């Protein structure tokens, strides 16, 4: 099974900050990686797929990069609506998620 | 617009059964790949099961032999039959649509329904 490790588990930041979340795979997954935003009691929302392709309608302040085993999600300028938990998911072999990164207000 | 609404969660004793329902609108379940994903309290997301457009299914090892995914094309609904439930099955269960783009990944999600397995 492919394991996904996200870091950090919690991130404190302010509006306007540049935020970076990392996701590492236990083996190469090429670029078969997605990122989701999840708020309590809401449906998770797809942000990025194929490591760096922005989903339609997602603000351009979100970007993804990486391939192989190391990936990053970057929010260029954190907005009030962005405080949430972010999950990575590999879909190279079945589907596994990272443990999530909670972005909270500093 | 794709909408997914889960129902059927609740409190059940260990060893019991529950059937989750996911009412879909805005697309046809008959030709779609659909998944169940769960999140246990304080834990990350965990993929549970998938049913492809051709009807083939896959399950996580943790639920294989106990859970069954199915769909009703006329009702445009996805189901998850959960038997022999264990306390570690306690989680919010989300249904989701899957997109094929070289590989299969989850795109639209429902809000989820809470399943609690406890005596």
Distance between the termini of chain B: 40 Å
Average pLDDT metric of chain A: 96
Structural category of chain B:
mainly beta
Strand content of chain A: over 45%
Largest sheet of chain B: 7 strands, mixed
Radius of gyration of chain A: 13 Å
SSE arrangement of chain A, N to C = EEEEEEEEEEE
Per DSSP, what share of the residues of chain B sits in E-state strands of 2 or more residues? over 45%
What is the β-strand count of chain B?
11
End-to-end CA span of chain A: 36 Å
Percent of residues in helices of chain B: under 10%
- Overall strand count of chain A: 11
Global mean pLDDT of chain B: 96
Broad shape of chain A = globular
Describe it for me?
The complex is a heterodimer of chains A (106) and B (119). Chain A has 106 residues and is mostly beta strands. Chain A is 0% helix and 50% strand. Chain B has 119 residues and is mainly β. Helices cover 0% and strands 57% of the residues of chain B. In chain B, strands 2, 4, 5, 6, 9, 10 and 11 form a 7-stranded mixed beta sheet that branches. Chain B has a 4-stranded antiparallel beta sheet with strand order 1-3-8-7, with no helix packed on it. The mean pLDDT of chain B is 96. The chains are: A mainly beta (106), B mainly beta (119).
């Amino acid at each position: 099974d492919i394991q996904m490790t996200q870091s950090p588990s919690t991130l404190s930041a302010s509006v306007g900050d540049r935020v970076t979340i990392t996701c590492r795979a236990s083996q190469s997954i090429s670029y078969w990686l997605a990122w989701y935003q999840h708020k309590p009691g809401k449906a998770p929302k797809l942000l990025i797929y194929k490591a760096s392709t922005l989903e339609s309608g997602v603000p351009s302040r979100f970007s993804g990069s990486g391939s192989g085993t190391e990936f990053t999600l970057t929010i260029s300028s954190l907005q009030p609506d962005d405080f949430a938990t972010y999950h990575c998911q590999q879909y190279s072999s079945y589907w596994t998620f990272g443990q999530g990164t909670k972005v909270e207000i500093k | 617009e794709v909408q997914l609404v889960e129902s059927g969660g609740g409190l059940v004793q260990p060893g019991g059964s529950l059937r989750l329902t996911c009412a879909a609108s805005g697309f046809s379940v008959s030709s779609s790949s659909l998944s169940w994903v769960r999140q246990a309290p304080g834990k990350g997301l965990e993929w549970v099961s998938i049913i492809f457009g051709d009807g083939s299914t896959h399950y996580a090892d943790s639920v294989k032999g106990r859970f069954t995914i199915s769909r009703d094309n006329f009702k445009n609904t996805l189901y998850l039959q959960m038997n022999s439930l264990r306390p570690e099955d306690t989680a919010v269960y989300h249904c989701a649509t899957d997109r094929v783009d070289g590989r299969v990944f989850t795109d639209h999600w429902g809000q989820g329904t809470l399943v609690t397995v406890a005596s």
